[in-house]
Design a protein that fits this description.
Length: 292
């Protein structure tokens, strides 16, 4: 009887040690985050609890979690659309990398459908959950938009996109960029060097100041004692251009620039579980959902 108790005791201790070892290993390589916004719909939804693989260098189209210096938001979740050294361009809402059109199956946009105040069919209401009276706002994929005519009133006037210019980086007044017309612009890579001129300075300023370790008086000629302005810079970091799948509602690299590798916390692997933010109910369909 005594030996049995001793064996049970040591078995219990071994089980605890094994559990602790597994937990420490998981915490070392994995981390859980809660999705804070709708910028990654339809891939990720607010209330999703995602598992990331920490310290993993992302590949193209990986969904990654990263932080931003001096930002009130703790972390961001976006998709990697361009790698270090590549050229990014958006024309008519079409993403191009190195001049080639890339897969847009995950891309959703907010489209404005203007009508003559005709009511939408009940099927359209059920299908797209729009809001508005004569200017309906719908969150659709580009593919769905091609089939939308059958769901809209016959007297529909127009379908168009709102392209934002406010807070675009580089600033719209010097770049002419908007959310739907952006670039071409090069994603910096380690070892990439370029002249810093009045023309290129607005494009590189944020990188140099926040990520490359240069002081304001080395970059901005309007700062006092800026007698040592740089005229040339070789980048230290690899950068990644990030965008949300729900592009019309995404605050991403179009607004804050590409992200240095050192700021990437990890790559999203799966949705562990998901809770509806409004009802508080568990969404069983999204449990253990693999992210692609």
């Amino acid at each position: 009887m005594k030996n049995r108790i001793i064996n049970l005791f040591f078995g219990f201790i071994l089980a605890i040690l094994l559990l602790l070892t597994i937990t420490v290993t998981l915490l070392r390589y994995y981390q859980i985050f809660k999705v804070p916004s709708s910028s990654m719909v339809p891939t990720l939804y607010p209330g999703d609890y995602i598992v990331i693989r920490k310290h993993q260098i992302p590949k193209r189209f990986d969904v990654a979690v990263f932080s931003q210096p001096h930002d009130t938001i703790d972390f961001f979740v976006k998709r990697v659309v361009a790698l270090p050294g590549e050229m990014v361009e958006i024309t008519n809402d079409t993403l191009r990398i190195n001049s080639s059109i890339v897969n847009q199956n995950f891309n959703h946009n907010v489209y404005c459908v203007v009508t003559d105040s005709s009511k939408l069919s009940q099927f359209a209401v059920d299908q797209f959950n729009p809001y508005g009276t004569d200017r309906f706002i719908l969150n659709l994929s580009t593919q769905t938009l091609q089939h939308i005519a059958g769901y809209m009133p016959e007297k529909q006037m127009a379908v168009y996109r709102d392209h934002r210019t406010a807070n675009i980086y580089p600033p719209h007044k010097v770049s002419g960029f908007s959310t739907g017309s952006y670039g071409p612009i090069k994603v910096p890579s380690a070892g990439f060097a370029d002249s810093i001129t009045n023309k290129t300075r607005p494009f590189y300023r944020k990188y140099l100041l926040l990520h490359e370790g240069l002081a304001n008086n080395r970059i901005d000629k309007n700062v006092a004692h800026s007698d040592s302005l740089i005229t040339y810079h070789c980048f230290k970091n690899n950068y990644y251009f990030m965008m949300g799948d729900n592009r019309s509602e995404s605050f991403d690299s179009r607004f804050f620039g590409a992200i240095p590798e050192k700021r990437i916390l990890g790559v999203v692997k799966m949705v562990l579980w998901s809770v509806n933010p409004e009802s508080g109910k568990l969404n069983f369909k999204r449990i253990f959902k693999k992210i692609e």
